[in-house]
């Protein structure tokens, strides 16, 4: 129980500067919840570039290269989900536009 509380608290404070080291520690100590939060944070297009510029990322790259493969897999999943959401919302906009045009006729 205490372990879960610690994971939750650490998950709330993740930043581009801390995520890579936190991910390495989560992997080392088998903190699955914290690891997943870190992977999702890093996989975001808006975060990944900033994370890659940190010393923590250099450490992760040198000491835990297998985790970088998981990061890339997560990036693929996030990109696919994002593309799916964007196409769905775009389709919704077009449908609304078409309904509006049909109503005006």
Describe this structure in words.
By secondary structure, this protein is an all-alpha fold. The protein has a single domain (about 1-75), classed as Serine Threonine Protein Phosphatase 5, Tetratricopeptide repeat, CATH 1.25.40.420. About 85% of the residues lie in helices and about 0% in strands. It contains six helices and no strands. The protein has helices at about 1-10, 20-30, 30-45, 45-50, 55-65, 65-105. Helix 2 runs antiparallel to helix 3 and helix 2 (about 20-30) runs parallel beside helix 5. The relative contact order is 0.11.
Structure, briefly:
Pfam families: BACK_BPM_SPOP (PF24570). The protein is mainly α.
What's the total helix number? Answer: 6
CATH topology: Serine Threonine Protein Phosphatase 5, Tetratricopeptide repeat
- 3D shape: globular
Q: How many strands appear in the DSSP assignment?
A: 0
Query: What is the arithmetic mean of pLDDT?
Result: 79
In percent, how much strand structure appears in the residues? under 5%
Name of the CATH architecture: Alpha Horseshoe
| Biggest sheet statistics | none
Q: Uncertain regions: pLDDT < 50 for 5+ in a row?
A: 88-105
* C-alpha termini separation: 63 Å
The portion of residues assigned to helices is: over 70%
Q: Could you state the oligomeric state of the chains shown?
A: single chain
**The CATH class:** Mainly Alpha
Based on CA atoms alone, the radius of gyration comes out at 19 Å
Query: What is the count of distinct domains?
Result: 1
Which sequence of SSEs, written as H and E, runs from N to C? HHHHHH
Structural class of the secondary elements?
A: mainly alpha
Region (Disordered): 83-105
Family: Belongs to the Tdpoz family.
Organism: Musa balbisiana
InterPro entries: BACK_BPM_SPOP, BPM1-6
């Amino acid at each position: 129980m205490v372990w879960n509380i610690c994971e939750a608290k650490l998950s709330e404070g993740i930043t581009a500067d801390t995520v890579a080291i936190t991910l390495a520690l989560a992997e080392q100590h088998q903190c699955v919840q914290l690891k997943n939060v870190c992977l999702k944070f890093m996989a975001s297009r808006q975060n990944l570039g900033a994370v890659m510029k940190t010393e923590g990322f250099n450490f992760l790259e040198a000491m835990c290269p297998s985790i970088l493969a998981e990061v890339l897999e997560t990036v693929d999943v996030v990109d696919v989900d994002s593309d799916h959401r964007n196409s769905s919302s775009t389709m919704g906009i077009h449908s609304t536009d078409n309904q509006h045009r049909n109503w005006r006729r």
